[in-house]
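Notebook entry, structure prediction.
Reason for the run: the old model in the group folder had no record of what sequence produced it. Starting over properly, with the input documented here first.
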Amino acid sequence: MKGMMAMNTTLAVECSISVSWDVVYSRELQSFQEYGDEGEIWFGEGSMIRVVRWLNAHKVPLTSSILDIGTGNGMLLVELAKSGYSNIMGVDYCAGAIALARSICEKEGVSQSVQLQVADFLGTFNPSELLDICLDKGTFDAVSLDPNGAEDKRSQYVQSLCRILKPNGIFIITSCNWTKDELLGQFGKEFEMTDELLTPTFSFGGHSGRSVTALVFQRRNCS
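New structure, fully documented this time:
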């Protein structure tokens, strides 16, 4: 895996010392209530804009069912709603994250377009119908850093995607832990890569690379 970069260094530290996400989001919810601080946007605002632009450029219908996996503070949902998407949902196993996301959606005036649910994507999440699109911005990274059975959980993650996505459904993932080739290794059996989103590059020691990888996959036949 690539070395951790910038914003997700915090994520690596928190996972490695088993800090409770409930504690993290409880603190962020209090900060939002007291100061209006919406908290950290993983990978920055550019990561959200790239995803929304791709959806717009490919004329994805505004009524498409879209899931934000591990939605956190829900800012990606806000951007989607403001772009006109009306059938969007965010799930997170952390109740504090959903409480924060709900507060932010209310503040931004998009609550009517957004569904929020406390659920474990790897286990208890069970949508009422198959979805058109799933988005991931850092959640697969967090699963990969879990010190308790990360390999099994990565497998469960792929199985969950297959279970909830429609045939030919779209999965867009943004990661700072995994390279393009590594993500193809993780998802390539069940998903076909159809596009790569341009992300910032960096140079070091005469070599260049990307600190963030963003790929678009389409669902194959899942078992």
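Summary: The helical segments are 9-16, 21-35, 45-57, 75-82, 95-108, 139-145, 150-164, 180-187.
The old model has been moved to the deprecated folder.
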